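CORE FACILITY INTAKE
Project code: CF-77B
Contact: R.S. (postdoc)
Sample description: multi-component assembly, two entities in total
Requested service: structural model of the whole complex
Turnaround: standard
Below are the sequence entries exactly as provided by the requester. Do not edit them.
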Amino acid sequence: MQKGYAAILVLFVLAVVTIVACTGIGPAGTPFFGLSGNDAGSLILFDVRLPRVIAAMLVGAGLAAAGVVMQGLFRNSMADPYLLGTSSGGALGAALAIVCLGGAFHSLLAFVGCLAASFLVYGIAQNKGRVQVEQLLLTGIAVSMFFAAILSAIMYSSGQNLHQILFWLLGGFWNVSWDDVTLGLIIIPAALCLLLFSRELNIFSLGEDDATHLGVNTERLKLILLGISSLITGIAVAIAGCIGFVGLITPHVVRLVVGPDHRVLLPAAMLAGGILLALSDTVARTIGNEMPVGIVTAFLGAPFFIWLLKRRYAA
Amino acid sequence: MIELTGLDVHYGAAKVLDAITLEAKKGVFVGIIGPNGSGKTTLLKAISRVVAPTGGIIRLDGLPLADISSRDLARSVAVVPQETTVGFDFTVRDVVLMGRYPHLGRFAKETTVDLAACDRAMELTGITHLSDRSVNAISGGELQRVIIARALAQEPRHLLLDEATSHLDISHQVEILTTIKKLSGEISVIGIFHDLNLAAYFCDEIIVLKNGKIEAAGTPAEVITPATLQKVFDIEASVSIHPATGKPLVILLPLSSEVVKNDYRVHVISGGGTGAEIIRALHRSGCRVTTGVLAMNDTDYAAATELGIACITEPPFSPITESSQAALAAQIAAADLVILTSAPVGPGNLDNLRILAEAKETPVLFLADDGRAALPDYTGGKATVYLDRMTASHRLEVVTGNELINRCTHGRKK
């Protein structure tokens, strides 16, 4: 535990450093090195870059938290925040907004799509108030496929909107404002609620029956944790679209470093996810010429993860 | 105390448990035995409230199970399942500490009391040296001991074991069951067993389940009988009270359906345990075996009677009576083959050899792995005379054990 708290502290300091550094860096220049100290300069710093960096932090933290919870609940290392069909639900919502409403309310519809998908999956998978994890997982895949089929049909017939939908699907922070940050701040109290259940998540790794034997109300736990992580994922998708990789890989990487105890893992993964996404977005908007950030996260993260795995399994 | 009254459990339309009534008092180790699919695990799941009964009532210390909160239930009942897989790389100590969860508030940290309970549980199960290892880096048996330690760390008043020690090696099985037996002075224990002898040795009471119903219940000696085992498991077994433990000891006998009967008649003259193995082998091969004359405390006699083989007997240290001599002569005359082992011959059993030598007709196989027709002779050479006479007349042939079995298995009536 002591080692875990030290890791959280280090990550927190790194997160602050990342926010400052990433805000300073951009195509328009860096303070004291080309970026003027006038109104235009402070506008770029505080109304363009800062909200974007903070939003990336929050979204990364939220996706990592949801990933930790999903992997813990499903005891499956392939689990990610989009397991309950949230990504395809959100994408469908956004695509409908783009095609039918000319792009208006696309964040709202993405959010609604995410939650609708989660509720649908949970509703289908439950039998008399009980949900079997495996059925939930498979139902999530089936519903995702179904939504993806509708989405493909829409994209197929969307004509000139296709590029816009595709761009949204890959995810990014290019038009983020302080309003998005405000929305994203909800992720913090939601994640704190998740943290309250970290001991139960630890016990859940022994399997559902054992958790029941130890006095965990497993059905309630699943409902609460899936509900909160769907909310978090929905907010993340509404802000930045479907950014992959962060929610899947960050929990693994952090678990390799701080161990599986969710009391440490959850906050550490959130900080690491935030840092990863803020850095990736900075790369995307500077070197990458506003390339969708999902490309960067996977491009940088995957080799790093493979290196970490190799080291881990060689030991 | 755990009380079940008229408990029914259905899985869909199938009735898995049917009107189960039983009681596990404090200080009593109750064992449950029964074939696969007889409802043993379901019974434990009903008590730990993982499955809901469709009828009847379960009470823990007088309280109906349905009225107990999850947390109170977990403080009262601990369960050790057959197998556990741990999803992540927790350390052994982490997993044992999870047993303290029902005693901890949401915001509470583990106190010294919790840590002490955890240390004690690890000590009792002999895993203290593993405490910092990852649960995914230890053996299956060690992991099972971790799970048992976790259950003990719960400090329950009732302990449910679902074949908890089946995957352990025999020394750890005995060690852990002994520990649990000691603990069972203060708590009630219900354990599912597959090993009948372990159940008989450790349990105070045994309940036999078949097709969801209680087939028998009582002390091990009352319940573990050849008749019950035949009825419930469809096995043929010999049950004796072991002199050292005073508990029933179950020995499996070959299935009668496996034995192909043939009408080859073999009489075995042996003694002192020299014939037991051959008697069993002949019995398995389906020959009609007779034995004798044997003393009633002879190992060969015990083997023959356990297998239900006819045996001419005399009390220990007694000479062979006239009637036994006549019986032996009749058996030899009726047999297709007589097998003689190199049992020591003294005045008491010299008549066996004399009657065999006088019978003349029936061929004799002398069992000796060194190929020599000789036996320990305590009759001043009389026994050897009979043996040599049979050898000289080519009636006697020396064979090894394996040859003998081969001959008898493929034996044909001449």
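Facility notes:
- The first helix of chain B runs from residue 40 to 47.
- Chain B has a mean pLDDT of 88.
Invoice: internal transfer
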